[in-house]
Amino acid sequence: MKSPTVASLEPRQQVNGLFLVQSKDVRQKKTGEPYLALTLIDRTGDIDAKMWDNVADILDTFERDDFIRVRGETQLYQNKLQLTVHRLARVDDSEVDLADFLPASKRDPEEMFAELQALIASLDNAHLRGLLENVFADAAIAESFKRAPAAKAIHHNWLGGLIEHVLSLASLARDAARHYPFIDQDLLLAGVVLHDIGKIRELSYARSFNYTTEGSLIGHIQIALRMLADKYPPGFPDKLRNLLEHLILSHHGQLEFGSPKLPVFPEAMLLHQLDNMDSKMELMRSTIERHRPQGVEWTSYVPAIERYILDTDRYLNGIPQPPPATPPKPAPAARPGSKTVMADKLMSLFPEGGK
Predict the structure, then answer these.
(1) At the fourth CATH level, which superfamily is domain 6-100?
(2) DSSP β-bridge partners for residue 12
(3) What residues contact residue 231 under an 8 Å CB cut-off, 6+ apart?
(4) Which of 68, 276, 299, 350 could pair covalently with 309 via S-S, beta carbons 3.0-4.6 A apart?
(5) What CA–CA distance (Å, rounded) separates 46 from 44?
(6) In whole angstroms, how far apart are CA 100 and each of 66, 74, 103, 209?
(7) d(CA 239, CA 256)
(8) What is the pLDDT of residues 18-40, one digit of tens each?
(9) CA distances in angstroms from 129 to 15, 66, 195, 274, 293, listed in the order given
(10) Mean predicted confidence (pLDDT) in 203-223
(11) CA distance 108 to 119
(12) Virtual CA dihedral for 221, 223, 226, 232, nearest 10 degrees?
C-alpha cells in the first residue's frame, strides 16, 4: 500500500502511512494521563499529530528523527489539519528512501549556486568580491550552502531554502538599490549573501530540521563571524570589514529579536527590512498553500506572526466563510526537562531563532 503524503491528506481521512518524526513531546490530559504530541513530516510538508490512548505501551519504542508507520484519522482543529494516531510502530531506516521525507526546493541547487556565483562575479568592489570568492571556494561551505534550509521552521524551511532565500533577497536588493541611489549596492549584496551563512552550522538537516549544539549555544549570527574570520583577503580594509560585520550583526533589526546591534546605516536598515519582508511573505505564501486542499478562506493561527491569514483568492472566488473568532489557547505545557521545553525556553529568549 502506497503511503499518502502530508500534502495529499484531507479532513476525515483514514491514514496508513510512513512519516518522519520531527518532534515528540509527552503531555498530560486533564485526568493526569499522558498523551503524545508529535510533528510528522515528509517532503511535502508537516502535520501535527496526537496520540491519546495506550501511550505508555509505545512511548519508549521510538524517538525524534525515527521513521514510523502510523494508523489514524485526520480532522480539522481550529482550521488546521491534525492527525489522531490510533497505532504507530517504528520503521527501520533500510525500509525507507530518505529523499521522500525532507522537503526540498523546487529549484535545482546547482542552478541556484551558479546564479549565486554570477552575482558574486558582478560585484564591482574587488575587496567584497574577493571575500565572497574565498568563502565559496571552501568546498564544505559551498556544499552546505546549496543544501541548508533557511530556518528550522517559519520560512524557506526546506533543503535548498537558504540559497533560495538569498537569491530572492538579492533580487529585491537590486531593485531597492535602484530606487535608493545613495545605497552602496555591492555592500548591500555582500550582506545579503552572508547574513545567514551561519545557518549552515546552526541547523542540522541530515534527517529532520533542528538546531545543532553549536547553534543552540551561539546562534547563526556569531557563527557567521567565526566563519568569516579567516576568509578575508590580504589588504581587506578595516572600515569595510566593520560595515560588513555590522550588516550581519544587525540584520534581525531589534535587540529583542536577537540582534546584538541595531542597524545604524542605510544598507543595514535596508537589509533588515528586505530580509523581514521576504521571510514574512514566504511564510504567508507557504501557509496559504498548505491550507488550499482544505478549502478554507482563513488559515489556522500562525504563532510566528500572531494572526490568522486570509487566502484572498479563495475569499474573492470561493464560498464565503466566517473569520476565526479568537486566537487559540496555548498548548498544554510539556513535561519538565523535555527537549521541547528546553527548545521553547531558547526560542523565548531568541524569538527570531526560527527565522
Answers:
(1) Nucleic acid-binding proteins (2.40.50.140)
(2) none
(3) 131, 134, 135, 138
(4) 299
(5) 7
(6) 14, 21, 8, 14
(7) 27
(8) 999 988 999 988 888 899 999 99
(9) 52, 43, 15, 22, 45
(10) 85
(11) 17
(12) -60
Are 172 and 113 in contact by the 8 Å Cβ rule? The answer is no
What does the block give as the cell for 229? Answer: 574570520
Residue 106's pLDDT is 85
Spatial neighbors of 109 by CB under 8 A, at least 6 apart, are 146, 147, 159, 160, 163
Bigger pLDDT: 266 vs 341: 266
Return d(Cα 125, Cα 189) in angstroms, integer: 11
Q: Which long-range contacts (CB under 8 A, 24 or more apart) does 12-17 make?
A: 12/73, 12/74, 12/75, 13/73, 13/74, 14/72, 14/73, 15/70, 15/71, 15/72, 15/73, 15/74, 15/83, 16/69, 16/70, 16/71, 17/69, 17/70
pLDDT at 157 over 80: no
Residue type, 144: S
Contact residues for 149 (Cβ-Cβ < 8 A; gap 6+):
156, 157, 158, 159, 160, 161, 162, 199, 203, 205, 209
Cα–Cα distance measured from residue 38 to residue 60, given in angstroms and rounded to the nearest whole number = 14
26: Cα separation from own chain's centroid: 24
Contact 37, 344 (CB under 8 A): no
